UniProtKB/TrEMBL annotation:
Domain TonB-dependent receptor-like beta-barrel, residue spans: 526-809
Lineage: Bacteria, Pseudomonadati, Bacteroidota, Sphingobacteriia, Sphingobacteriales
Coiled coil regions in record: none
Subcellular location: Cell outer membrane
Similarity annotation: Belongs to the TonB-dependent receptor family.
Domain TonB-dependent receptor plug: 130-254
SUPFAM superfamilies named among the record's database cross-references: Carboxypeptidase regulatory domain-like, Porins
Cellular component GO terms, alphabetical: cell outer membrane
Protein name per its UniProtKB record: TonB-linked SusC/RagA family outer membrane protein
Signal peptide feature range: 1-24
Length: 1087
């Protein structure tokens, strides 16, 4: 009987202890509101304070102003604070379990903008408030672009972040953007910034040896695996002293993306849907079949002097005879086909996202799932994406906290087999039928794809509709990124340690297939039933350990923060590829299917890559009198991509801030000057090569001494140096009139030293034909200006207006003597431009001839000297203008293109080539107002612009050259036809003459202003929403890319001008899918 008795006593004692513990851990709930408008105060800090005014624990209010805090001692007090309000302090909590607080606005409140300014800046180092930051940064709240219909967030950012230029590569679904922060800093043109997601590096590089078919680093969107709806904000780091914090991948700048996390409060479920329709801009007006049929005989007559009928019954002639007695040619070549229209359609977008967030004192969570479907405006293109994300925060104790993040993405991207499908559609013979007519004149369902026609064979003149519908190129992506973080306060509020580890597992597959039906070629042709499969796997593990020291001083005059960080990163990649041709059937698209003719059999490829890097960072920031701030940092990087001599690099930085407005002599200005600061920074940031190894090998196709052998593929270079960007920055911050006006200005100078270039051609006497070298120095100078204003703010109305502009100047300072100074193109042949690397000129400059019009008659072709007098030959004969004498010695005729004879020698050659332009915009930026009424109706309008750059309109060149059997634009209707005609359009001339040399005739000013987005949203009143048993309901109507003001004659002036790995490339418009006008209807419901 004793056992039950003692057991009862034990249970009673346990219950008593539990009750005491529960009593000692009272939960207090409440709501914080604004006294002036009774609205919830979001993000207010609620802390438990003991008798010594020490903080015991604390929480923040959620979006409804609610909080819940576990109190350790009921004799303690609650302290509630928020920027812009007076601090509230309660009496002893006692037995209270509900405390509602009304905060009174502070008389010295700095207002709404100051709340934003008080947030910390995500730089990768110390968590410093924006007010005390010494860095050159720009931040965008993702709410500003949440209603835009985009597949990746970079597509919504053009013009919104000062000093950052976003250039489009294509309007196809999933196409990427080129991103340039303060210009192009590398001679290879590959200068995209480092991406950081939730505090850890995010891999965006595609393995160099992986074959994506028509995709490449630019064409495959870097941020496609990050759902825009999960993003909270984006910060760009621009100055070298700050980018150095992130190490060897950050020399081109850093784009930091923070995703949403849970907050204290009851679960909030949000569903968002966006449905869109996309329409391409008006196409280039092209010749009809009838007009084309008149052009071609004229071309032939001008070139040969005989009519096209001279060819008799050849296929070339039959295509224009329209003889009913020959039904094949009559029906299949007597059409008015709009090929561009056939491969163009209206696109559609569906974007669904559902999320849940909430949490209590110990745990907070955010989880989302999304589905995105985009049917592209070019036939055959589409994108499907499934995303899911979970972010968890858990507080174990006052000292220990955990964070766990998990992201999964599945992507299927349908592309055209040929990226030039629209260019072919522009040039395809319009009198041809897309479908085959039989001998009775009946249209069949078979594509009309003759093996050969007067335009040539498959490779350049395929049936674009057949290629769009039947050719296949698909990209499949699976990516999972788990991340785990531990935060431990070794000494609360003094010494904190953090540890983060992230695994990034990414698999990308590409499958392409070109069926016989899309080519018209016989089944034995090498291009028929061509199948490729490529599989690329990458695995990346990154870790970061931080020690953060923030000592407390007896005086408020001094503030010090210090950081030590050790970071590691390991990247592994492997790719496998197989290609086969002539598979047994167009329905058997696997390359393992045996070939009908076994021309080459299977072509197998594989690559592997491994790289490691480590970084050790030290950073400290000291503040004195809240006016003088100095920050020092130094980072040592080690990277396996270098040889042993220069594997490690040290990159220092120093920056500072002087708060002028805090000086005693500025006291009289406090009524209208809220903040006036001057910032400076100086630092260096290193950049490693792109490949995984500094020395590589490959197997031979034949044996040596009866054994298999391998040979080195490159010269081992142990002394290659780090490419280093040394940057200087001077910043200026001004806030006026209670935050109604905020002005940020930056002046910078960045110098890239020891520019790295892979694959420089060298003499083969070394045993190799290429070498990697450090080749020179490049400068990027410029300035940036951002203006944020609140012209109107009343109880009902708020009007904001933002504006930013940036100017970048690029120039080459020095080039190695081993590096070529010009492109391999000699005197430009038809359609080509010459590129030079000239010291003092911008990277990406190109050169050619000056187009002066058309020779109207024979007299106009007479060569003239500097005085304008005719040039007379040694025998007294009249000299007429020639091209490239004596190598070519073509004599210009009436109706030919006229080029400026710069040196007046009567000969158009390389001596007459001049600078024509470059693709570096002089100014980039954006501006627009946001108007809200009673917080329920909101209208935002945003314009973006790029000014002062030139591109080659290759589409116009191809459709106005009148040189072969290609269709041409309607502009050629004004062509020269007879002596005396005054026009700028040369004569039609089949396969003769030099009417489309690389000249300024095709170089156009691509400057533009674009109405990028107009969005109007309406949030229903709470009374209405409650009747629907919802917590919120908002509708929005959005238009994107609505109007573009430009002198450019093509469909889209916003082409990729960032360059490529070829330093002699120049920006060109080759008729890729243009940006579309997109109209979106969206709804967001909260439950």
């Amino acid at each position: 009987m004793k056992t039950p008795f003692y057991t009862s006593i034990f249970l009673v004692l346990c219950s008593f202890l539990l009750l005491r513990s529960a009593a000692a851990q009272t939960i207090v709930q409440g709501r914080i509101t604004d006294k002036s408008d009774k609205q919830a105060v979001i993000g207010a800090t609620v802390i438990e304070q003991d008798k010594d005014k020490r903080t015991v624990t604390g929480v923040s209010t959620d979006i409804n102003g609610n909080f819940a805090i576990r109190i350790s001692n009921t004799n303690n007090k609650l302290v509630v604070s928020s920027i812009g309000y007076k601090t509230f302090t309660s009496g002893p909590i006692g037995k209270q379990t509900t405390i509602n607080v009304v905060l009174e606005p502070s008389a010295s409140s700095l207002g709404e903008v100051n709340i934003t300014a008080s947030k910390t800046v995500s730089t990768g180092g110390l968590n410093i408030s924006k007010r005390n930051s010494t860095a050159a940064t720009a931040t965008l709240n993702a709410k500003d672009v949440e209603d835009l219909a985009v597949s990746s967030i970079d597509q919504a950012l053009q013009g919104r972040l000062s000093g950052v230029d976003f250039g489009t590569t294509s309007g196809d679904p999933g196409a990427g953007m080129s991103i340039r922060i303060r210009g192009t800093s590398s001679i290879t043109g590959n200068a995209n910034p480092m991406i950081v997601l939730d505090g850890m590096p995010y891999e965006t590089e595609i393995p160099a040896d992986f074959n994506f078919g028509t995709a490449d680093d630019q064409g495959y969107a870097q941020l496609l695996n990050i759902a825009p709806s999960d993003i909270k904000d984006i910060t760009v780091l621009k100055d070298a002293a700050t980018t150095a914090l992130w190490g060897s991948r950050a020399a081109n700048g850093v784009l930091i993306i923070n995703t949403k996390r849970g907050t204290i409060g009851k679960p909030v479920i949000t569903y968002n849907f966006k449905g869109s329709v996309s329409v391409q801009p008006n196409p280039i007006p092209l010749l009809s079949g009838d007009q084309y049929s008149m052009l071609i005989p004229e071309e032939f007559m001008n070139a040969t002097g005989v009519p096209l009928d001279f060819l008799g019954n050849s296929g070339q002639n039959k295509a224009f005879q329209y003889d009913p007695s020959d039904p094949f040619y009559y029906y299949n070549y007597s059409n008015n086909t709009d090929w561009a229209g056939l491969v163009t359609r209206n696109g559609t977008i569906q974007d669904h996202n559902m999320s849940i967030s909430g949490g209590g004192e110990k745990a907070r969570y955010y989880a989302s799932v999304g589905y995105y479907n985009n049917l592209g405006t070019t036939v055959g293109t589409a994108l499907n994406r499934l995303t899911s994300k979970i972010n968890l925060d858990y507080i174990v104790s006052e000292k220990l906290r955990f964070r766990t993040d998990l992201t999964y993405t599945h992507v299927v991207n349908n592309l055209n087999y040929s990226s030039g499908i629209r260019d072919i559609a522009f040039r395809k013979m319009p009198n041809m039928s897309p479908y085959l007519y039989d001998e009775y004149g009946t249209l069949t369902s078979a594509y009309f794809s003759p093996e050969s026609n007067i335009q040539g064979k498959y490779s350049s003149t395929y049936n674009p509709l057949a290629m769009a519908n039947e050719g296949s190129s698909k990209l499949y992506g699976e990516r999972i990124t788990p991340k785990f973080s531990v935060i431990y306060d070794v000494i609360p509020n003094v010494l904190q340690s953090t540890f983060d580890v992230q695994f990034d597992i990414n698999n990308t597959k590409s499958k392409t297939f070109l069926p016989q039906i899309a080519t018209g070629r016989p089944s034995t042709d090498v291009n028929v039933n061509r199948a490729t499969d490529n599989d690329g796997d990458s695995y990346n593990i990154a870790s970061k350990f931080n020690l953060i020291y923030t000592p407390r001083f007896n005086s408020d005059k001094h503030q010090l923060s210090a950081l030590m960080s050790f970071q590691t990163n390991e990247s592994r990649s492997a790719s496998y590829g197989v290609t086969s041709t002539n598979t047994a059937s167009s329905y058997l698209q696997d390359p393992s299917v045996p070939s009908l003719v076994n021309i080459d059999g299977l072509n197998l490829q594989s690559t592997q890559g491994l790289s490691r890097d480590i970084g050790l960072l030290a950073q400290a920031q000291y503040e004195y009198l809240d006016r003088y701030i100095i920050s020092l940092n130094a980072r040592m990087d080690g990277n396996s991509k270098f040889g042993p001599d220069n594997r490690y690099g040290i990159f220092p930085g120093i920056s500072g801030r002087w708060r002028v407005s805090g000086e005693p002599f500025m006291k009289k200005t406090t009524k209208f000057i809220d903040e006036l600061s001057v910032r400076f920074s100086y630092g260096a940031s290193g950049k490693a090569p792109g490949g995984s190894y500094f020395n590589t090998y490959k197997p031979l196709d034949w044996s040596y001494a009866g054994r298999a052998a391998i040979v080195p593929t490159n010269m081992e270079l142990s002394s290659l140096k780090w490419e280093t960007v040394v940057g200087k920055n001077l910043g200026f911050n001004l806030v006026l009139l209670k935050n109604r006006i905020t002005l940020d200005a930056e002046i910078y100078q960045n110098t890239t030293k020891d520019m790295y270039y892979p694959g420089l051609n060298i003499s083969t006497v070394t045993g190799f034909n290429k070498i990697d070298m450090n080749v020179g120095t490049m400068d990027n100078d410029g300035w940036e200006l951002s203006l944020y204003t609140v012209p109107l703010k009343t109880k009902d109305w708020t009007v904001n207006f933002d504006f930013n502009i940036a100017r970048n100047t690029n120039s080459m300072r020095s080039i190695s003597d081993f590096y070529p100074r010009e492109s391999s193109v000699g005197v430009p042949a038809q359609g080509n431009y010459k590129s030079y690397l000239i010291l003092g000129n911008p990277f990406g400059s190109y050169y050619g001839f000056k187009f002066k019009g058309v020779y109207k008659d024979k007299a106009a072709t007479v060569a003239r000297d500097q005085d304008g007098k005719p040039i007379i030959g040694p025998n007294g004969q009249t000299i007429y203008m020639r091209y490239n004498y004596p190598q070519v010695d073509y004599v210009f005729q009436p109706g030919d293109a006229m080029y400026e004879d710069v040196n007046k020698d009567g000969n158009i050659d390389y001596m007459d080539m001049v600078y024509l332009g470059n693709g570096v915009p002089k100014f980039v930026g954006g501006f627009g107002p946001t108007i809200s009424y009673k917080g329920g109706i909101k209208l935002s309008v945003f314009f973006s612009y790029r000014l002062g750059y030139q591109i080659v309109n290759l589409a116009r060149m191809n459709t106005t050259r009148m040189y072969n059997w290609d269709n041409q634009s309607a502009a050629v209707l004004s062509r020269w036809r007879k002596p005396g005609d005054i026009t700028n359009m040369p004569r039609a001339l089949y396969n003769e003459g030099y009417n489309w040399l690389g000249s300024d005739r095709y170089v156009e000013d691509a400057s533009f202003y674009r109405l990028s987005a107009v969005n109007i949203s309406y949030s229903l009143k709470n009374s209405v929403v409650k009747r629907l048993r919802l917590s919120s309901l908002r509708f929005n109507l959005t238009g994107q890319n609505l109007f573009t003001w430009t002198k450019y004659t093509g469909q889209n002036p916003d082409v990729n001008t960032a360059g490529s790995s070829n330093p002699f490339s120049y920006p060109k418009d080759n008729a890729l899918t243009p940006l579309s006008r997109t109209f979106t209807l969206g709804v967001t419901a909260g439950f």
